[in-house]
Amino acid sequence: MASFKPTQIPDLPKLGEKITEDTLYWKNYKAPVQIKEFGAVSNIDFSPVSPHNFAVTAFTRIHIYGPFSQEPVKTFTRFKDTAYCGRFRSDGQLLVAGCEDSVVRLYDVGGKAALRMYKGHTKAVHVADFTTGRYQILTASDDYTCRLWDIPNAVELTAYQEHTDYVRCGVTSKLNRDLFITGSYDHTLRVFDSRTEKSVMTMDHGQPVESLLLYPSEGLLVSAGGRYVKVWDLLKGGQPLVSLKNHHKTVTCLALNSSGQRLLSASLDRHVKVYNTTNYKVVHNFDYAAAILSLGLAPDDESIVVGMTNSILSIKHRKNLEEPKETSKPRRRPSYRVFMKGKNFVPKQDDYFVSKPARQHLAKYDKQLKRFNVSKALDTALEAWLRRKKPEVTVAVIKELDRRGTLKNALAGRDEEQLSRLLCFVIGNFFDTRFTPVLATTAEIVLDIYQCVIGQSAVIDRHLIHLQKLLEKEIYYQKDLMEILGMLDTMFAFSLLRKETAVAGLPECHTAAANVEIFKIVFEQSTCLYT
Amino acid sequence: MVEYGDIRVVYRGGSKINFRKPVISNDSRFLLCASGESVKVFSSVTEECVHELRGHTGQVTGVLLRPSNHLQVYSCSTDGTVRLWDFTDGILVRVKNEKGTFRTLVVKQVCVFVFAELFQLVAVNLPQTPDQLVEARDLSAVLSDVSSNPSTIAFGRGGEYLASVNNLKMEIYFFKKNKSYRFEPFNGGKNTFTCIACHPKDDCVATGHDDGKIRLWRNFKQKKEYTYSTLHWHHSAVSSLCFTPEGTNLLSGGVESVLVQWRYNQENQKDFLPRLGAAITHVTVSPDGALFSTSHSDNKITIIQSCVKVSAVIQGLVKGENVTTGLLVDPRSKALVLNGRPGHLQFYSLQRDKLLFHLDIVQQEYIHEAGLEQFEVVRAAFDASGLWLATVEERKQKSAELELNLKLWSFDEQTQSFVLNTTVSAPHEARITAMCFSQAADSQTTTLVSASRDGHFKAWQLGLPAHTDGTQEYEGPSWSCDFVGAYHGLVPRCCCFSADGSLLAVGFQEVVTVWNPTSWELLTTLSQPPGDVRNLCFGQLSCSKYLLGSNNKKMVCCWNLLTCSLEWSTSMDVSLLLVDSRSENMAAFCCQDGSTDLFVFKPSEPRPLFSQKAVCSGRVIHAVFTPREVMLESSEESSQWLNRSQLYFLTEFMDLLTFSTKAEEEKLMASSKQLVIDDTVAMTPFYLLLGKHRHEHLGNEESAERTPLPQSSVAIKELLQTPAHVLPATSFLCSMFAKSLLISVTETSRRVGHRFNLNNSDSDSNSSFRFRFFEDMTCFTRAS
């Protein structure tokens, strides 16, 4: 006599993203604090010294926020025009900022008025930073030049005029006080050494460069421009290492997490992507409400600060790991004595063993199925906690009943309450792709059985109308998706054809670019639909 | 069967053991059942086959104990003989020759009742002659128009009457009155009689019906005033009924595979033994009532103790209506694998002719109900090392779409069985037509390819271990789809990996495509003369550059993969093409006007190694090469292809056949000495108490026997056996007796002679003289 085989609960794959270590890490942030600034937030810089305040450059002001404050602890307002690039010195005492009016201002973090003004640029200064030597300032401007200034004397030391377009980003080396790198809208990245007159290295990014980032080891340089993020190996003379194309709009900002294992890039497409720096695969993705202009990561990843074009500053703080969880009182168990009864009995040599067969434990619905009580089995499977917490069990039982050919018997003969419970379950889970095939047959059978009593109960009628509406919506949605699929197929077929002709020798770059544009439109449409 | 040199086709194993009711011996130690052309004797304790009573040349259609000697058994067969056997030692006692074929057998005292061909029940009086072969002439028809099923006939209390049912009528024949009563109580509907049983102590007949009812008939000695009561539990036809020897219980069984035990006269009390695995076809009880046995439709006999507890299961090879998985060989156990019970794979040892185990693929409770669509295992494949098993199960409902599941099983060394690793639900949108694993045993990754009617083939690979972190449990690597291939929307029918796993050939209707399994690019396409590709296989070893294919337009083609051109092709209607993994040989089964021919050949050689016309009647539907455990050393050219492996094949009549050589058979005969199996008594508490004493006792006896007995000479024997009154005088005998006790000089002289090379002729003559003297003496005593 074989034992009863319990109902198989299929372990269906969970829909949605996979849970990895990264998703757990990056999801462990609280709901964001939103602060309205006066204009688009163009730069965020964290103070290198504790308590790690951060300077937020927005329109004509620079606000300094404390790590947990929602109000600025300090405000610098004395700019004639839009301020750019407010940055701290390595000791956290001084702050430098460029301005649309071409004047670079230096502030004491404690003071109010500018300590020094550096005048020499002829156009807006978008880049200002301290060199590691602490007594010099690097600036780069829309007049195509970058300059080094002496802090105390406010004197221009050197000016480099190698770029042929606006210089919009720059970074100084943390290890060498003479080295700095600038990126420009002329698509180039240039590495300068203050001891020489000319740039020592030039790299071509291919797009107007928006942001630069140096690894802590300074062997690798990351540049962002256009839709691309590129990684360069400086030690190999600026050899391109990887080119990442994960955004579909211009990438505006880059950051590295505290361990240096993850790279973050923010873009106008409203996403922040997290890359693994060993294989440069996207491991996580943040969505924001508006195009992102600036991104800052506090030391130890304590908070993620993002500035957007709609002048909102969003601060996400990390959840505290040591938050005490409410632990329920452990269930009282029978005493030790009860459990140990007869456990320490040692059988004698001549004892005859009578083995007691292990009792098979069956779930409630299985017990009913074993006795062929199909209606009761369905009732137990539709218990409130089961259908809410584990809909897959309920669906498995329905499927099992269908396999036994007794689903109709189980569904028939129900009163209003039982039927409405069943219909609630069907409506709630109908569009879960895992359950749709089973629930569709269930719904069909229910309609077949109860069509003669439709109109007698208001509750049931309401449910049925709801189900009908849902179905119509789903059909409409599926139709849309099919249309998009058709569009995509056309597009792919078209691009493949073009590629072949391009190989044949025709210049088809324009059509290819057009293709990409169309594709982009279609893709956005589809993403909108999905969301 | 068909002779060809010294190679012949033989039936191999797996005959039906559920064809007729088995018989349990009086002491409940043996169970006898008809199995093909022989009667098998199983031990009811160990489930082993103890003897096989061979002798019939046709299907054995009935086995019954001889009432006058409980160690003898009658069997009848379609060859027209009834044989009497001594089953404990497997000796044929008597053969009765008879014209016509026998369908079944009932025994009552000295008469043997047999069913002849024309549905008549015939009484055969056995002449009491000591001859081995007896021609039985004394026939008398008892009943006519009986059903061919033996369960529709039964003897009533002490053999006073005989009851038989057929369709809607019941007939009871009384021997004393020599009169029969016919009852036709029902007008039709589902009341057809299916089986009958008579109460051993009471005038009561139980009948089973098509609608699941059991009726107990009483007072049937008149034509009119009979009565009956109805018992109803079964929901479909009752297939077998049986009373226990004392008549206290009635056992019934049917399609539900539940054994129901009804109390006689207290019919509302019943015991159930549910989930016996398959529909019950016969129920029997041992003569002492200690054991029940149920035969099942899946070729199984279950032995049940009277406390309604299963004690043993004798399982034969399950051969359903169709072997969908084909024949496979488990590389690890070398067992033959095919689908058996619904939703199971069976592992069958060919060497021992024993079913090893069933692997539950579907893992669902089987519902015994007619007309219910069940999950069936339709495809299975092993990888080269036997570490992975892939199975496909499907269930086709009338209205709903096809339900398909692909399951991958890994072999667990600890439990020595297959453990489910991955389930892929709906791997394809339509039926899977072919499935194969990458052959190379040494490669790190195994690839499974499944081809389906939806026009795609998919490659499945074992993924990397799932990412682990603190919150989730560790999950082993699982299989996932690696590549989906298609070719111009054609339907792939077959796929095949090359021996080293570097090439994959997929036959898309008329086109054979060759793919690279590492990069999944289409390397080349080979098209052959029009016709859908039916079989594809790569050559092995030295012929690995060849790819062979057969199509449904009676062509076999061989391509050379180095030149991508057709090497040769021939016109042959090959229904099955298979390759031996141990050698270069290939076998092709060709179906021609009702019979099948076999060709064994090497792709590189023009002449076949072996060919045989009309291997068997009907089509061969599946075949497999199984590697031999011990290599044969046959020098003859025609049988060399059988040295490394054996060829098993299954015909459309579900006969499992193989080829055997003469040398092999001789070896088998030599090794199959009749072993007397010590059917040891079960370890009961009583045995535990007394067994020890008995053992000691036995030990004493043995030691007593070991003391050497005095050599009994001829003289002593003569002395003791001759009656005293004819003996000569004692004084005369004394001297003779004394002499006989002396050590013979001849023996000593012989020993001496051997030692000294016997060159002394004198001593030789001397000894011969003495020898003669002794002979004279014995002659004398005999004469006197």
From TrEMBL, chain A:
WD repeats: 118-159, 244-285
Transmembrane intervals: none
Task of the protein: Ribosome biogenesis factor. Involved in nucleolar processing of pre-18S ribosomal RNA. Required for optimal pre-ribosomal RNA transcription by RNA polymerase I. Part of the small subunit (SSU) processome, first precursor of the small eukaryotic ribosomal subunit. During the assembly of the SSU processome in the nucleolus, many ribosome biogenesis factors, an RNA chaperone and ribosomal proteins associate with the nascent pre-rRNA and work in concert to generate RNA folding, modifications, rearrangements and cleavage as well as targeted degradation of pre-ribosomal RNA by the RNA exosome.
Subunit composition and interactions: Part of the small subunit (SSU) processome, composed of more than 70 proteins and the RNA chaperone small nucleolar RNA (snoRNA) U3. May be a component of the proposed t-UTP subcomplex of the ribosomal small subunit (SSU) processome.
Keywords: Nucleus, Repeat, rRNA processing, WD repeat
Localization per Swiss-Prot or TrEMBL: Nucleus, Nucleolus
GO biological process, one term: rRNA processing
Organism: Nothobranchius furzeri (Turquoise killifish)
Biological classification of the source: Eukaryota, Metazoa, Chordata, Craniata, Vertebrata
Alphabetized Pfam families for the sequence: UTP15_C, WD40
One Gene Ontology CC term in the entry: nucleolus
Protein name: U3 small nucleolar RNA-associated protein 15 homolog
Keyword match Repressor: no
From TrEMBL, chain B:
One GO-annotated biological process of the protein: positive regulation of rRNA processing
InterPro entries membership: Beta-prop_WDR75_2nd, WD40/YVTN_repeat-like_dom_sf, WD40_repeat_CS, WD40_repeat_dom_sf, WD40_rpt, WDR75
Start and stop residues of the WD repeats: 53-95, 186-217, 231-272
Pfam families, sorted: Beta-prop_WDR75_1st, Beta-prop_WDR75_2nd
Keyword Zinc carried by entry: no
GO CC annotations on file: small-subunit processome
Keywords: Nucleus, Repeat, Ribosome biogenesis, rRNA processing, Transcription, WD repeat
Domain WD repeat-containing protein 75 second beta-propeller: 327-653
Gene Ontology molecular functions: RNA binding
UniProt subcellular location: Nucleus, Nucleolus
Cited PANTHER family: WD REPEAT-CONTAINING PROTEIN 75
Name of the protein this chain belongs to: WD repeat domain 75
Species this chain originates from: Nothobranchius furzeri
Gene designation per UniProt: WDR75
